[in-house]
Amino acid sequence: MNDSFVLVTGSTSGIGLEISKYFASKGYNLILTARRETILKDLKKKISLTYDISVDYISADLSSEDSPKNIYRFCKSKGYNIEILVNNAGYAIPDPFHITSMDEEEKFLRVLSTSVIVLTKLFLNGMIKNKKGKIMIISSVAAFAPPSTIQFLYGPVKTFMNRFSEGINSSYNQIGITSTAVCPGYTITNFHSSSGIQDEMDRVPKFLKKNSKRIAKIAVEDTLKGKKVSIPTMTYKIIVFLLKVIPKSIFFAVNKYFSPGRYDNKI
Predict the structure, then answer these.
(1) How far apart, in whole angstroms, are the C-alpha atoms of residue 258 and residue 267?
(2) Residue ranges covered by each domain of the chain
(3) What is the pTM of this model?
(4) How many CB atoms lie within 10 A of CB 101?
(5) Distance (Å, rounded) from C-alpha 35 to C-alpha 40?
(6) Of 69, 71, 70, 77, whose CA–CA distance to 9 is shortest?
(7) Tens of pLDDT along the chain (267 residues)?
């Protein structure tokens, strides 16, 4: 039996689910992790039967400080070799920064950044020993955009994750380990409804909304190729290019049309 696995966080819905299924379609064994054990159990059965691969799961809430270590211990106890680590779990906080509690902010930061760092640190030694490994970090086009008045910390955290991914490549490429920061734009999932920002998504022009299966396929293929940054679809490649070259004043004026409400004053 092949003991090499792909570990996917936030694997029960959205881009994470589609990434899991796409890896499975390519014959990779999976470790699925998310908060809802019932869904994980059903998903394990469905994917393993559909794709004839080995699938296991562990329920974990990455807003808890102990969760990354528990995931690592689970894999070690089972003898699972994590060849590819997919850091996908995430959400957004819809309320203005001055309203949210520090506890909310800390949980958010643990899910989107600290857990990514801890999981990467824990599984990296095994990759170094094997002299190969791939890390995927689901970032966002928001990493390249000016700050917005909603999802206050989301863009800055994604910028940090992009730099973290760069650091992994700088330090470990020479021994066969690559990290890919995947930066999608607006993607049709339950992310916006579960994060309480569905109104924002509903007002975004249709041509900016991309299918999660398409995003997942590009993310997986770019990760397997060892690309350092993956910006799925030509639409968002152009947008990221423009974000780098146009003055911020022009960006704000144009983006009020494309993302109404996102840069409005919330005070």
Answers:
(1) 22
(2) 4-258
(3) 0.87
(4) 9
(5) 8
(6) 71
(7) 467 899 999 999 999 999 999 999 999 999 999 999 999 999 999 999 999 999 999 999 999 999 999 999 999 999 999 999 999 999 888 788 888 899 999 999 999 999 999 999 999 999 999 999 999 999 999 898 877 766 788 999 999 999 999 999 999 999 999 999 999 988 775 654 454 545 664 556 675 777 889 999 999 999 999 999 999 989 889 988 988 887 766 666 555 555 555 545 555
Query: 4-258 in CATH: which number?
Result: 3.40.50.720
Q: Which amino acid is at 85?
A: L
Length of the chain in residues, anyone? 267
- Show Cβ contacts of residue 105 under 8 Å, excluding neighbours closer than 6 positions: 93, 153
Q: Could you tell me the CA-to-CA distances from 1 to 29, 53, 208, 254, 267 in Å, in that order?
A: 10, 10, 43, 54, 58
Helix, strand or coil for residue 184?
A: coil
The pair of structure tokens assigned to 82 is 């994590």
| Tokens standing for residue 37 | 């054990």
